[in-house]
Design goal:
globular; 7-stranded mixed β-sheet; 35% helix; Dihydrodipicolinate Reductase, domain 2; 7-stranded parallel β-sheet; single chain; Rossmann fold; alpha/beta; 2 domains; 18 strands
Length: 389
């Protein structure tokens, strides 16, 4: 099986590591990136004869098209705004395509390729990272295991293992993507109806095992991808919130209220720059902090099985930095689910031509099995509704 990976950054590095070290039957992996230094670093790190690197721009269709034709699966780990065009190139080259997502409008454009993908016999699967991605797969699996569901709550966060000033947060993925999550409306299901609520709202406290203790969670955008639409009519209440150390939401809301997320360019002494561009630049500088990270995920469903037996079932993940391979928790929990889906597509274990919602084609129990083989700590436990967690 041959893979084409676009992007040699943090998540691309994790995907490449997994495809070469965990996937069965990987005959070749081609990685394309516009940064020669990143490609050289990746090649030295992985030191695998199956790896080939290509320095180029993902917007260069002439260079990319033949690479798509050679691949069984193409994986995008570049900025989300390229993904719709990349998906179209993959379909033309008869390669399966998946990406890490991050934007609902781009995903909608990918779903417009459904008929072309079916005709080509390939599958397009957007939003295959952590959230969107793994969280939705696990959420759907929990709901699908019950006869009737009252609610589904998804809570996910990437944090420094130890909180650090100024925001008790460190950059673990794209700052622009992070800002999007914090400012765009969040899609939820309330009383059986799809609606949106403002991000940075509905602050709550939740508790994780020590050393974390009490944390906060609040509404953010994009973490559920297509899941609310998929489960509309089946789940009366569904929402997704981001987990942070206490106080973070109030800090970022102040930045938002001051207009620092505005994308309108402003004239300054060095030329024009938007407040958002300046904020992103400063966050990249000030929040690129040392020390390991941790990813926390909690998916909780409340409903009924065996007729009228009420149940609360929870999946909890606490994943840490892999010191042996120097792969952060966020890299693992974003890159590994994407790599697993790529492997299932390449092997034919997933066979579903067209543009597909990942929650409908990726079996949750299979994802759990394969993540556990990669050393991810996944707990599943049950309690009665109302019983302390």
């Amino acid at each position: 099986m041959k893979y084409l990976l676009l992007g040699a950054g943090l998540q691309g590095t994790a995907i490449a590591h997994d495809l070469l070290n965990q996937a069965e039957g990987t005959a070749g992996l081609t990685v394309m990136d516009g940064n020669t230094e990143s490609l050289e670093k990746l090649a030295a790190r992985l030191n695998d004869p199956r790896l080939q690197t290509v320095c180029g721009d993902v917007r260069d269709a002439d260079t990319l098209a033949p690479l798509m034709e050679e691949a069984d699966v193409a994986i995008s780990a570049v900025n989300y705004w390229y993904n719709a065009d990349l998906a179209a190139l993959a379909v033309a080259g008869k390669a399966h395509f998946l990406d890490l997502g991050g934007n609902n409008d781009i995903v909608a454009r990918e779903f417009e390729l459904d008929e072309e993908a079916k005709a080509a016999g390939v599958t397009i699967v957007p939003d295959c990272g952590l959230a969107p991605g793994l969280a939705g797969i696990l959420g759907y699996w929990l709901v699908d295991g019950l006869e009737k569901t009252d609610s589904l709550k998804l809570r996910v966060g990437g944090l420094p293992a130890k909180p650090l000033p100024p925001m008790n947060y460190k950059v673990v993925f794209s700052v622009q993507g992070l800002i999007n999550e914090y400012i765009e409306p969040a899609v939820v299901i309330r009383n059986g109806k799809l609606k949106t609520v403002p991000s940075l709202s509905e602050l709550e406290t939740l508790r994780f095992p020590e050393p974390f203790g009490d944390l906060e969670a609040f509404q953010t955008s994009g973490g559920t991808s297509t899941l609310p639409q998929t489960l509309a009519g089946r789940v009366p209440d569904l929402d997704y919130k981001t987990i942070r150390y206490k106080g973070h939401c109030a800090q970022f809301k102040l930045l938002f209220d001051l207009g620092l997320c505005d994308s309108t360019p402003r004239q300054g002494s060095e030329g024009k720059m938007s407040p958002r561009e300046m904020l992103a630049q400063l966050m990249d500088e000030k929040l690129a902090l040392p020390g390991p990270d941790v990813v926390l995920l909690q998916a909780e469903v409340v409903g009924y099985e065996d007729g009228d037996r009420a149940i609360r079932r929870t999946v909890r993940i606490i994943d840490h930095h892999d010191e042996q391979n120097d792969i952060s928790a966020m890299m693992r929990m974003t890159g590994y689910p994407a790599a697993i889906i790529a492997q299932l597509l390449a092997s034919g274990e997933i066979s579903a031509p067209g543009a597909k919602q990942q929650e409908l084609i990726v079996p949750g129990d299979r994802m759990i099995e394969l993540l556990r083989k990669r050393g991810v700590n996944i707990e599943i436990f049950e309690k009665q509704p109302g019983e302390p967690a």
